[in-house]
């Protein structure tokens, strides 16, 4: 347990002016202050909302904090157990001053004092240990065991596809998919500018040329018009990514692919549980890939899956996953393949995770609904659009901060939240900006991905997050934004 912010950073004197309080609030990582009296005793608390209300009532910044603060002569005694403090907070994310015997603030309690609020941690409370133990006890620890077959069969059923191949991670899932379609040197594959680098890397592994295109402002995913403009006679495949669980705009992409005979490989690494027009993401195009890294909706530690509709392509992928070996003639290699297999140990965890997927997904949707209800009220924060006929699985709830309106960079916002004990992560950097990929941008422009990437961050979205933590994250962000707004409006 640690408290990254010293209490001194949260204190103001009740005799200080509101002008002083405005700048101290703006520097407070929690966006709030505790006010003390002349003897240093807790006297009240203050946020930008209180000062806003006072200014609206006709007060001015030369007036004293004591006239505006919300009186708080209480606090909680220092030395109480965090669990007890949490109970007293009654499930809210309230920040409470801790006081000594003289009622002087010596610290504070918040949910982040109990633990830093993580971004997306795995939840392994089901049959994971039991199934892994079964692997060890039966000696089936490599890639031949029954859990691999069961994991594949259950995943295929979940997706409603005939073939699911478990692989060692989501990156090789992408590579295997492209390799199974014979994509290689001389071919072009269209990828979005805003994605995790694995998408573009997989294309480069094949020897094909990635063609980066901009994303759309409503989905944050591959923009169909930019794709249309980037298609050439060499284009072989399109790789839409369903970023953060929001489905890409698949209708026009499928139509284009059909017209031009292109393969659609969906990178659904972040979109287990998402759907577009009732079809699960990953099962919309020709083939879909998934990641089971530890922060994903379901995890196997490291792991992935690739799903196919076509029998022959699936059979080729199965061969390529196993060194290109002929399935009916051991150690006879028909082509150069890879070892991309998943172990039975990992698949055992995957089977246990699949048993819990409905509850995981339900919690993700609750988390998203909560953040949406709180944060969409802030003009400086853009939340994911709720689009017709799609189901966003909200893998990690992500927002775009209007950095111009806030007057701070996204990374400064991340640093403030971190000082408040809240882990976030930046949205991905644009592919076209990074040295290994710049050459694949051509003379295309990327205004949308550049804007989203510059202002974007993902908020804590673990299925294990408590309601108090959610309230604390939303409350802290709200207070920071309002403190910024107040500091900027009163400075001018
Ligand atoms: C969009 C996307 N594609 C591919 C991958 C690669 O998956 P893995 O980390 O399992 O290799 C990830 C992983 O986070 C991802 O977010």
Question: Would you mind describing this structure in some detail?
Answer:
This protein has helices at residues 18-27, 48-56, 82-89, 111-114, 128-138, 146-159, 170-180, 198-206, 224-230, 250-260, 311-321, 344-354, 357-375, 403-406, 410-419, 447-455, 467-491; strands at 11-13, 32-36, 42-47, 70-71, 76-77, 96-99, 105-109, 163-167, 188-192, 209-213, 235-238, 263-267, 275-276, 279-280, 287-291, 304-308, 381-382, 390-391, 398-401, 425-426, 456-458. It is α/β, with parallel strands linked by helices and 492 residues long. The relative contact order is 0.15. The chain is elongated, with a radius of gyration of 26 Å. The protein folds into three domains: 7-114, CBS-domain; 128-354, 3-Layer(aba) Sandwich (Aspartate Aminotransferase, domain 2); 358-491, Aspartate Aminotransferase, domain 1. Helix 5 (128-138) runs antiparallel to helix 12 (344-354). Strand 9, helix 8 and strand 10 (209-213) form a beta-alpha-beta unit. It binds pyridoxal-5'-phosphate. Pyridoxal-5'-phosphate binds next to helix 7 and helix 8.
